[in-house]
Amino acid sequence: MMKISVCGKGGSGKSSIATLLANLARDRGYPVLVVDSDESNSGLYRMLGFDSPPIPLMDLLGGKKNVLRQMKSAPSRSESAQPLNVLARHEISIGDIPYPHILRRDGISLVCIGKILQSLEGCACPMGVLSREFLKKLRLKDSEMTIVDMEAGVEHFGRGVDTSIDEVLTVVEPSLESITLAERVNGLAAGSGVGNSWAVLNKVTSHEMESKLKEELDKRGIAVIGAIPYDPELFEACFEGRPPAGGNTAEQIGEVLDFLLARKSTVS
Ligand SMILES: Nc1ncnc2c1ncn2[C@@H]1O[C@H](COP(=O)(O)OP(=O)(O)OP(=O)(O)O)[C@@H](O)[C@H]1O
Ligand SMILES: [Mg+2]
Fold this sequence. Notes:
The protein is of the alpha/beta class.
């Protein structure tokens, strides 16, 4: 139905908001695929309540060197004849991805592109290629939603990861760096052909702060579709490596989800 990416400055709350959105969408009956596209951090699976992370999709391709060759390899006439190289197909459905490269739990599935594990292992470009090609080939059913937890910063735009994303969400915490980054994301999203780029405020502690942030973003031509309050429970859950309860932010996360769903119904 819809591919959403969650991006923003390091530590702004991308993984937390991706998790809360995924949980709420699932509660409302939408099957959700969460794509962990952050090659540095590894804790998303814990936030989502999984005991261990999925084996990265990168491993399906035999490592970083083989990414381009494998993703481009021509599928045989019968696509199902090559179940192992699912990533080489023209189209990938969520159901095609084999365990343990996808984990499923209570209506939420999780895949991970790849992680940098060793020093001197080279740059993360192949992960960007895999993220981009995977998201491009991913075909969603009507009710299915994909939420991509992006790496911090803007390099993913340079790598074209966002080209098949329907809605780009930028998480903005109360800092000038975060606002400035949102401005860059907004410009780069437009350059990638994604016209739908929105800011979600996070860690908001007062109405005054919310208004100030909105004003700054408005000046930069960025629409704000939600403001998530600072929630000590969310902070503690993250610190303890367990899923957040989400109760304190449910209303505001609900507004963000409602906005995205309403757009989907007017666009399609
Ligand atoms: N609304 C919130 N209230 C309180 N703490 C929050 C909130 N959102 C995020 N945090 C805290 O901020 C920290 C960073 O959050 P999170 O890991 O989600 O950010 P991130 O953008 O994914 O970071 P990274 O760039 O490292 O991947 C965590 O300690 C998290 O608990
Ligand atoms: Mg993160």
